[in-house]
Specification:
Number of helices: 4
Shape: globular
Distance between the termini: 18 Å
Helix content: 25-40%
Strand content: 25-35%
Strand order of the largest sheet: 1-3-2-4-5
Number of strands: 5
């Protein structure tokens, strides 16, 4: 499944999925974000049972603020439209998959 670019306008539709939703909060100037991005892309392509989206915190500061994102990269997993799990900083693929379980 491909990664969805999430904005304020599509956020609710994406998060209110019947599948778990992994969201990567990132910025183009953030080196750890650049290192995490291909791992998140890989998780998305290998797992049809989840929805994966990315939020650029510079383009969507309100969304970042709504979820208290103070450091990036931040990964937040939603289940049934509610926050289920969260991770801050660069993590490996296994850690991401464990967040979703």
């Amino acid at each position: 499944m491909s990664v969805i670019k999430i904005t304020e306008s599509n956020f609710d539709n994406v998060v209110n999925s019947d599948k778990p939703v992994l969201i990567d909060f990132w910025a183009s100037w953030c080196m750890p974000c650049k290192m995490l991005s291909p791992i998140v892309d890989e998780v998305a392509s290998e797992n049809d049972n989840i929805v994966v989206g990315k939020i650029n915190v510079d383009e969507e500061p309100v969304l970042a603020g709504n979820f208290g994102v103070m450091s990036i990269p931040t990964l937040i997993v939603f289940k049934d439209g509610k926050i289920y799990n969260k991770s801050v900083g660069l993590v490996n693929k296994d850690r991401i998959l464990n967040l979703i379980k």
